[in-house]
């Protein structure tokens, strides 16, 4: 048995509980509206980000294909996303 797996699972459970607490406090602060607030050790700024527009890549691709842009063009203009190694932790059954 690898005790690191149990430690990792416990830490992830603690992180999930902390994330819930963080979200609850952030929700309260957001409900009070935009402002800079001071604690004893930290400050927090609640701010609003304006709505923005972004290109819908899937819709753009569909339209370009409809207009006859070749498969070769799409192949030549794709970006490469690096692979990675991940760790998934679950409760033993």
What does this structure look like?
The chain is mainly α and 93 residues long. The protein has one domain. The chain is 48% helix and 9% strand. The protein has three helices and two strands; from the N terminus they run αββαα. Strands 1-2 form a two-stranded antiparallel ribbon. Strand 1 and strand 2 form a beta hairpin. The two termini are 15 Å apart. The mean pLDDT is 94.
Structure, briefly:
The chain has 93 residues and is mainly α. It has one domain.
**Helix segment tally:** 3
How are the strands ordered across the major sheet? Answer: 1-2
The biggest beta sheet, please? 2 strands, antiparallel
Segments where pLDDT lies below 50 for 5+ residues? none
Shape by Cα distribution: flat
How many individual domains? Answer: 1
N→C terminal distance: 15 Å
- What fraction of residues sit in β-strands? 5-15%
Q: Provide the residue-averaged pLDDT.
A: 94
- The string of secondary-structure elements, in order, is HEEHH
Instruction: Compute the CA-based radius of gyration.
Output: 23 Å
